[in-house]
Structure to design on (216 residues):
């Protein structure tokens, strides 16, 4: 499907940026530059795209003429992605919300600026996804969830209905959260963990070891 938007500058040249670029190119969106302190030649997908060496160079473009995509991935204990979002919003720039064509996003979900919903992800009705959050490949966020600012729902994670998360929460790859659970800000749910109780802020939840009982 073709999408219409201002020309894009993508910030970052790592794996997450490459996935976003792939989505943008498949949607016929014009990407005029990638901004990165690193060399971009390691990833073939960036070849032919103008390389800005660092985010200062973005200021040469007026916020009226371009829209940004935050290609910096989000991992526990790393707030670079959130800082980039806030800095550029403060300077009048806007972030594109990126939704892969294969994602299923309810018209009755509220998706804030700069969210990224990648291939095969699902966002159900009544859900609020706050700015700068990622619903990564094949993750699902069910009905009536409220997801805070700069959350990362990693690949294959499942949030059942009415889950509420604070800001800067990371739900690890393949984790499962049952319905009506609250998760405090900056908490990390480890890959593969199953969460059945509310979790306070600033916690790390590790997956449980197998609970084994002899059959009667
Ligand atoms: C497209 C993308 O790639 S997006 C990226 C998605 N990635 C994620 O979601 C990663 C989420 N992070 C995790 O799950 C992490 O392992 C955390 C945050 C739970 C724990 O990290 P740390 O505290 O640094 O734990 P650390 O790596 O030191 O591991 C300690 C031990 O626990 C084990 N362990 C840690 N996390 C897990 C896990 N999720 N499942 C099973 N075992 C685990 C480690 O193997 C290690 O075991 P060992 O002592 O026998 O070697």
């Amino acid at each position: 499907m073709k999408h219409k938007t201002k020309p894009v500058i993508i910030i970052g040249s790592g794996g997450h940026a490459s996935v976003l670029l792939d989505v943008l190119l498949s949607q016929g969106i014009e990407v005029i530059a990638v901004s990165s302190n690193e060399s971009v030649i390691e990833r073939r997908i960036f070849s032919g795209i103008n390389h800005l060496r660092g985010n200062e160079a973005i200021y040469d473009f007026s916020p009226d003429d371009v829209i940004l995509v935050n290609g910096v991935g989000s991992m526990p204990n790393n707030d670079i992605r959130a800082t980039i979002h806030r800095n550029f919003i403060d300077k009048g720039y806007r972030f594109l919300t990126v939704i892969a064509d294969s994602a299923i996003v309810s018209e009755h979900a509220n998706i804030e600026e700069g969210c990224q919903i990648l291939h095969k992800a699902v966002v159900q009705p009544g859900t609020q996804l706050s700015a700068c959050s990622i619903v990564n490949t094949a993750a699902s966020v069910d009905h009536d969830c409220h997801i805070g600012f700069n959350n990362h729902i990693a690949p294959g994670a499942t949030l059942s209905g009415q889950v509420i998360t604070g800001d800067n929460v990371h739900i690890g790859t393949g984790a499962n959260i049952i319905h009506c659970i609250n998760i405090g800000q900056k908490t990390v749910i480890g890959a593969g963990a199953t969460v059945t109780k509310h979790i306070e802020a600033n916690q790390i939840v590790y997956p449980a070891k197998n609970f084994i009982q002899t059959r009667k």
About this structure: The first helix runs from residue 15 to 26. The mean pLDDT is 96. The chain has two helices and 22 strands. The helical segments are 15-26, 80-90.
